[in-house]
């Protein structure tokens, strides 16, 4: 995995395309699953350029591509060095706290979904 990431860092266009494709695919799949099984729409890109059934659009796809490129090509090395400067105990505790926060966020989103007009961006 490390070898793959080190190769990709030298190819930002590939990183951009992979980030765009993976992020958009996940957004489409998750949006479809939420809508099919629970009739929930946490985002709706209807009316945005090149949208597909409101689940994905060009703007969000470009956002995934740009964010992935910035993360992998610019930030990952610095953040990795910072992370490994922390003691193993602090890293472990941080992972546990972040996992609980993630699970709490998932639970809150399921019990109190953000639905209705303007769920993606204020209109």
Concise structural overview:
The protein is mostly helical. The protein has helices spanning 2-9, 12-38, 58-85, 88-111. The protein has a domain at 2-77.
Task: Kindly describe this structure.
The chain is mainly α. The protein has a domain at 2-77. Helices cover 71% and strands 0% of the residues. The protein has helices at residues 2-9, 12-38, 58-85, 88-111. The relative contact order is 0.13. The mean pLDDT is 89.
Helix content: over 70%
Largest sheet: none
User: What's the β-strand tally?
Assistant: 0
Report the end-to-end length measured between terminal Cα atoms: 42 Å
Task: Round the Cα radius of gyration to an integer and report it.
Answer: 18 Å
Count of alpha/pi helices: 4
Shape, please?
flat
- Overall structural class, as computed from helix and strand content, comes to mainly alpha
Strand content: under 5%
Q: What's the order of the H and E elements?
A: HHHH
Point out poorly predicted stretches: none
For the residues shown, what is the average pLDDT? 89
List keywords for this structure.
4 helices, mainly alpha, 71% helix, 0% strand, 123 residues
Topology:
Blueprint (H helix, E strand, L loop, with lengths): L1 H8 L2 H27 L19 H28 L2 H24 L12
């Amino acid at each position: 995995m490390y070898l793959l990431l080190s190769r990709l860092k030298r190819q930002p266009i590939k990183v951009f395309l992979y980030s765009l494709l993976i992020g958009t695919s996940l957004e489409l799949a998750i949006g479809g699953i939420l809508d099919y099984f629970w009739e929930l729409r946490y985002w709706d890109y209807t009316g945005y350029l090149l949208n597909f059934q409101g689940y994905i659009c060009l703007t969000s796809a470009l956002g995934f591509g740009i964010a992935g490129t910035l993360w992998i090509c610019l930030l990952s090395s610095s953040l990795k060095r910072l992370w490994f400067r922390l003691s193993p105990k602090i890293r472990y505790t941080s992972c546990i706290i972040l996992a609980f926060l993630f699970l709490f966020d998932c639970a809150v989103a399921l019990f109190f979904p953000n639905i209705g007009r303007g769920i993606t961006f204020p209109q």
